[in-house]
Amino acid sequence: MPSKPKIPKPHKIPVSKLPKPPIPSGLTRVPKPGTTRDDVTVGDVAAEGGTGVVAWIDERTAGSGFLRGFLFRKVPKGTNWWYTLGSATMFAFISQAVTGVFLAMYYTPDPVQAYESVRNINNEVFLGEFVHGMHKWGATVMTVLVFVHMARTFVFGAYKYPRELNWVVGVLLLMMTMMMGFTGYLLPFDQRSFWATVVGVNLNGTGPIIGPYLADFLRAGSDFTATTLSRFYAIHMMLVPGLIGALIGVHLYLVAKLGTSAPPWLKSKLPDEEKKKV
What we know:
- The chain is an all-alpha fold.
- It has helices at 42-61, 63-71, 85-104, 114-123, 128-155, 164-185, 191-205, 211-219, 226-258, 272-277.
- The protein contains ten helices and no strands.
C-alpha cells in the first residue's frame, strides 16, 4: 500500500514583543519640581483621577456654589449645641429610612405571615434583630428629637418674622413623624399592635367633620380587614417618608435663605454712631 504523504509541519513564526502602549496623558500626573514620573505612585494617579471626576461633575452641575452657600454661611453669636437638634433629627430620619429599606426586604404585609416574617427577621436573618432594634428605638428617638427641636425653636423665638413659614413646615414635619410612628406600630401585627391601632383609629374617627372619613381611609373601609395592614404598610413605607423628605428639603432651603436667629438673651450691639445718638 502506498505510504501516506507526510504533511510538513508549519514553521513557527517568531513573534516580536511589542512595547507597552504609553499611559494617556490625562491619566498621568505631572511630577512636582525636583521629582520624576517614576516617583509618582498609582495612588497619586487614582487620587488625581477622583479629583478630576468631581471637577467634571461640578463643571456640569455647578454644585460647589450651592454647597458653599449652604454650608459656609454666617451664624449668629451665641450659637451652641441646641442648634444641632435639627441636624440630629434629620440624621435620625435617614437612619430610619436606611433600616426600613433592609427590613422591607424580609417583611411580608400579610395578616397571616406578617408576625412570622418579623420573627424570622429577629431570629434568622443576619443582624436582623440589630437592624430591627435600630428601627424600633430610632422611631422613639426621632419623635423625641422633633419635640425638643420645636421646643427650642419656641423658647428661642425663632418662629417669629421672617421665619413663620419655616415654623409651619416644622409643624407639618411633626405631624408626619407622628403619622409614621402610628402606621409603623401595626406592622408586627401582634395582639398589642392590633388593638392599639384599633383604639387609635377609633379616636381619629371621633374628630369633627373629617374624622369619620380619616378613619375609613386608614382602615381601607368601615372595618379592619386584611387590606388595612397593606394600607398602613403603603402609608408607612412610601407616602409619609416621601412627604417628610420633601418637607425637609423646603425646611433646609428656608434655613439657608433666612438664616438662624440668635438666642433671645443676647442683645445685638449698636453701631458707634447709634451709641452717640443715644
